[in-house]
């Protein structure tokens, strides 16, 4: 490995790869150093017995502006989820459709008591956003969303997005998330969420299994003691120059192999009646490549990163789908303590990308906790590098 480089990017997560792609497009020669053997950081996919298992249930909202600008959606061969959700409440599953996509089904949800009659006006108020920053829980209350609708739909849905059990996440991030989901569907790539990172890494000089110990302006020291010099160093991972200001939110994702989909169709199921499961979906219904032919992949999300009580999970699943659940095969459980940076009130603020002369930083913990935030942070770091060397 040469010890003189144009740009060294530390970390081959989404932010680092997005930064490197922008630099390469501008004619620079970035080298990306990654301690793992695969790219993607927290956006990775394992292949287990023919199933594609993402590291935690993740989706790509197609309306993300950074993703639209940077990714080749056609090559990812995306399979979209339905616009709306299925709500588990009062012992029943009921579909809540996007009224703009399926007005008849939306009216049925109103008539069936899934959501309150006045909640439509409250949701429109939420979508308009507010200049006053508060918690997500308080923003829902101020908008006038009924307690029943919060408990049945908004709380489990947003907990699944934020991984924040108490909904203390900033309302500014709530505004961003609601707009993204309102403007387009969420989707899964044919090759799993990890294929997003693979696409971003294509054409780049990425060196995996290379652990960086320390960084400084124009220099990087590897764990084995070697020092590399560069005109520019960009740190695109937490834990080297900084950590998320407000800590991490954790999650546990459990995957099952099932003979058929318990919920037909590409729907997200949100649990509005308690129990360990926060949300459930069948990824292979959105992207059939997630499971071998004739099988279905079931994904469950449990908030927090503790040891999952699989017996309690199985009991809840049996209550939902019957004794046939006992035929499901547990594939893998992912406990992810550092799944998303926490963003409480006051935490939603861009941090400077310039740390010192020749030293820059990016990552979703420096922007906002999403794929869009990671890509935006990487773009801002690349723009700063290019501007400073112009």
Topology of helices and strands:
Layout: E1 4-10, H1 14-25, E2 30-33, E3 45-48, E4 51-54, E5 60-61, H2 65-70, H3 73-76, E6 79-80, E7 84-89, E8 92-97, H4 103-111, H5 119-128, H6 136-143, H7 147-162, H8 171-183, E9 186-188, H9 194-201, E10 205-207, E11 212-216, E12 219-222, E13 227-235, E14 248-258, E15 268-271, E16 279-281, H10 283-286, E17 296-303, H11 310-321, E18 329-341, E19 354-356, E20 359-361, H12 371-388
Task: Explain the overall architecture.
The protein has helices at 14-25, 65-70, 73-76, 103-111, 119-128, 136-143, 147-162, 171-183, 194-201, 283-286, 310-321, 371-388, and strands at 4-10, 30-33, 45-48, 51-54, 60-61, 79-80, 84-89, 92-97, 186-188, 205-207, 212-216, 219-222, 227-235, 248-258, 268-271, 279-281, 296-303, 329-341, 354-356, 359-361. It is an alpha+beta fold and 390 residues long. Strands 1, 2, 10, 11, 12, 13, 19 and 20 form an 8-stranded mixed beta sheet that branches. It has a 7-stranded mixed beta sheet with strand order 8-7-15-16-17-14-18. It has a 3-stranded antiparallel beta sheet with strand order 5-9-6, with no helix packed on it. A hairpin with a 7-residue loop joins strand 15 and strand 16. 51% of the residues are buried. Mean pLDDT is 92; it is low at 102-112.
């Amino acid at each position: 490995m040469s010890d003189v480089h144009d740009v060294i990017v530390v970390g081959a997560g989404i932010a680092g790869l997005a930064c490197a792609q922008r630099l390469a497009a501008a004619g620079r020669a970035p080298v990306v150093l990654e301690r793992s053997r695969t790219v993607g950081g927290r956006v990775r996919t394992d292949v287990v017995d023919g199933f594609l298992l993402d590291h935690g249930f993740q989706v790509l909202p197609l309306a993300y502006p950074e993703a639209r600008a940077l990714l080749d959606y056609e090559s990812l061969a995306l399979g979209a989820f339905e616009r709306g959700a299925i709500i588990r409440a009062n012992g029943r599953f009921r579909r809540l459709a996007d009224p703009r996509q399926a007005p008849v089904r939306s009216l049925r949800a109103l008539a069936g008591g899934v959501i309150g009659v006045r909640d439509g006006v409250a949701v429109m108020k939420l979508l308009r956003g507010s200049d006053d920053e508060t918690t997500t829980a308080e923003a829902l209350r101020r908008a006038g969303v009924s307690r029943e609708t919060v408990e049945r739909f908004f709380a489990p849905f947003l907990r699944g997005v934020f991984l924040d059990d108490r909904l203390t996440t900033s309302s500014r991030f709530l505004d961003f998330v609601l707009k993204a989901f309102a403007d387009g569907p969420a989707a899964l790539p044919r090759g799993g969420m990890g294929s997003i990172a693979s696409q971003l890494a294509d054409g780049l000089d990425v060196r995996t299994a290379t652990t960086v110990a320390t960084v400084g302006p124009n220099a990087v020291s590897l764990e084995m003691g070697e020092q590399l010099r560069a005109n520019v160093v960009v740190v695109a991972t937490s834990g080297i120059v900084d950590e998320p200001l407000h800590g991490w939110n954790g999650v546990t994702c459990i995957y099952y192999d099932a003979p058929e989909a318990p919920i037909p169709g590409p729907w997200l199921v949100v649990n509005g009646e308690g129990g360990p499961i926060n949300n459930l979906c069948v990824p292979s219904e959105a992207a059939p490549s997630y499971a071998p032919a004739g099988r279905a992949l079931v994904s469950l999300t449990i908030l927090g990163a503790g040891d999952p009580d699989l017996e309690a999970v199985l009991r809840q699943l049996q209550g939902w789908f019957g004794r046939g659940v006992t035929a499901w095969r547990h594939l893998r459980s992912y406990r992810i303590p550092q799944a998303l940076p926490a963003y409480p009130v006051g935490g939603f603020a861009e941090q400077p990308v310039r740390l010192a002369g020749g030293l820059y930083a990016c990552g979703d913990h420096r922007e906002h906790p999403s794929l869009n935030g990671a890509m935006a942070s990487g773009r801002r770091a690349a723009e700063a590098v290019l501007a400073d060397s112009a």
